[in-house]
Design a protein that fits this description.
Layout: H1 2-13, H2 17-20, H3 22-56, H4 61-67, H5 73-83
Length: about 90
């Protein structure tokens, strides 16, 4: 996340509005702000996944499966994200 923050800060500090024009400058700022928000969202999801897995503690996969109906949707998503890197639908 620090990398996206740094890129936004560097871009803003460069004061390129007069070089790029208002519309392009604004679009580039928005693009970098979107990247920062995405990084913040990804970090939040990773932290939630760690929390859920930490709460799972010494529970076996079977015990986690038993607790599954009691988990919130956010907790379920965090557990799945912690174990599944990618799903391809064909």
């Amino acid at each position: 996340m620090s990398e996206t923050d740094d890129e936004l800060d560097t871009f803003l500090a460069a004061a390129l509005a007069s070089v790029l024009g208002c519309e392009l400058y604004r679009a580039e700022v928005e693009r970098r702000q979107d990247a920062v928000r995405a990084a913040q969202r990804d970090l939040g999801e990773a932290l939630r996944a760690n929390l859920v897995l930490g709460q799972a503690g010494t529970r076996t996969p079977g015990q986690l499966a038993e607790a599954w109906p009691e988990l919130t949707m956010g907790e379920k998503r965090a557990v799945v994200r912690a174990y599944v890197e990618r799903v391809t639908v064909t």
